[in-house]
Amino acid sequence: MRETFDVAVVGASGMIGEAMMSILEEREFPIRSIYPLGSERSAGSTLQFRDQSVKIGLLSEFDFSRVQYGLFSAGASVSEVYARRAVEQGCTVIDNTSRFRYEPEIPLVVPEVNADVLTEKDHLIANPNCSTIQMVVALKPIYDAVGIERINVCTYQSVSGAGRSAVHELANQSAALLNGKPIESEVAPRQIAFNAIPHIDVFQENGYSKEEMKMVWETRKLLRDESIRVNPTTVRIPVFFGHSEAVHIETRNKLTASDARELLQQAKGVTVVDDPQALLYPTAVTEAANRDDVFVGRIREDISHDLGLNLWIVSDNVRKGGALNSIQIAEYLINGTV
Amino acid sequence: MRETFDVAVVGASGMIGEAMMSILEEREFPIRSIYPLGSERSAGSTLQFRDQSVKIGLLSEFDFSRVQYGLFSAGASVSEVYARRAVEQGCTVIDNTSRFRYEPEIPLVVPEVNADVLTEKDHLIANPNCSTIQMVVALKPIYDAVGIERINVCTYQSVSGAGRSAVHELANQSAALLNGKPIESEVAPRQIAFNAIPHIDVFQENGYSKEEMKMVWETRKLLRDESIRVNPTTVRIPVFFGHSEAVHIETRNKLTASDARELLQQAKGVTVVDDPQALLYPTAVTEAANRDDVFVGRIREDISHDLGLNLWIVSDNVRKGGALNSIQIAEYLINGTV
Questions:
Q1: Contacts with B310 from chain A: Cβ below 8 Å
Q2: Tens of pLDDT along B116-139?
Q3: How much is the CA Rg of chain B, to the nearest whole Å?
Q4: Is B168 one of the catalytic residues?
């Protein structure tokens, strides 16, 4: 008989938590008991899991010795308080917040990219930021083949990256503006409907936003190469689900566009949609939303640099960018394969 | 008494043509008679100009010897037929289509950037593409100070760049989707509402779109430097008015972010909005729409390149990107100043 596990989902009423519940079900993750957990605000409400109603428990009262895995996605401040406590109680925590990502001894993992860093001693594992995950999944095969010197990346990020309230805000603002009514911005720092905002997370002293610096720090840690130089501009746009990224890389050795296409076609977790003459390229709505893979198109040699290559990388930020990646980490811990 | 001129506006019922009419009025362009012109579809309908109703005339029957200036914005195929004919009839044509932009003997002009190329012999002058104009206005002072080697640029372009029908399509698709109704895409190549489409104009053999290649060709011609290397990814996003651009440049000599900010603060046609700690940066809706200037923010030194500098450049694509720039060219021809 197949071994089964008890799993806690921390932040179960959030968008990532909800996706975790449904992905655990879809992928037939070997669950014995599931414990959705939340704050006092959400505790007591019920969720569906495998045709059953499950009540959201109170995180602050939960005994993590009851579960083998804890999937955390309730914000860095919640992980700060509860993640290490859960590990001490014998639970392996996969943390989808920024809290532990940059601590040298904590593994930061995208299974297709660096699952091999994981050892049996790891009971606290960090899940990277959504915008980094999809980029690195697509760049890993290229990095392995020819190396990467430098990355210029500009993102086109959906509002779901900022949570459910940001999704509602985009819908509400769009409807109000189409009806000629005034709007308010509470989640986004400006009007997000019919606009583009070059500001995600807080600004750092060097003029980059923290979202931008996450892409710098995490790309290096995931590819285990501190020499890779990354220059991001991250931008929120009025899309509900799915992040798009224009990625201009400079490789160490020459890679043609057609060789890159071939490499990516063979890569796990990647779907190439790339035939501009046939108008084939991925977009957030038409390819990525509700799908697991990272979609890559517009693969072309950079006319401005001998070793340059351009890619357009699109993925569902709630799935591969968060919930799915965390569950894939748990699956790797259980099965030892990606 | 101030000299006055007779002016024809070709494509007067289009979005750029309409903006031309209102900008001519706003700026008190010295007009004696105005002749809005169009195809059989629009001829006969009336427009307001200076509190008067003016009838749109039929382009195919118009005698251009009646005007000194012709502002053309009705598509490359219309300019193909009528622009040289108008010049032969004694009219100076400022053409806001791609028809003549890349002909070596035709000046391509952004007045703040290269008005000095114009001579008295020039009676056919090309207006660049919207996405190039705003970028080059912001880059010119930097180019003059330290030179520019290479430009990585990713655009966030509004649908108004594709004309009035594209604006209606975004509004209709947005409203339909918010009401759970099916949508159709006729102008954009995919659903544009709540999406990002990396496809503007037709794809070239090298994998770049023509919109991208326009930025390459026009930047070099405007800055009169064929050695500048440009690597664009151009993307349509669900914004009505105002193009945004993430521009990552590599200069020939070092320029600090604060020196760049100072240069740009003094530049004609540029407004710097750049204090991230105070959450000041330009966006299409909050700064650019309906304004004349090119707005620049997020100015920062590129952490991935010693001579790198990043900028976020936003402007109203219908005004500075089209109608206003054409009128500024005419003003320069008349006054000899920008």
A1: 207, 231, 233
A2: 999 999 999 999 999 999 999 999
A3: 20
A4: no
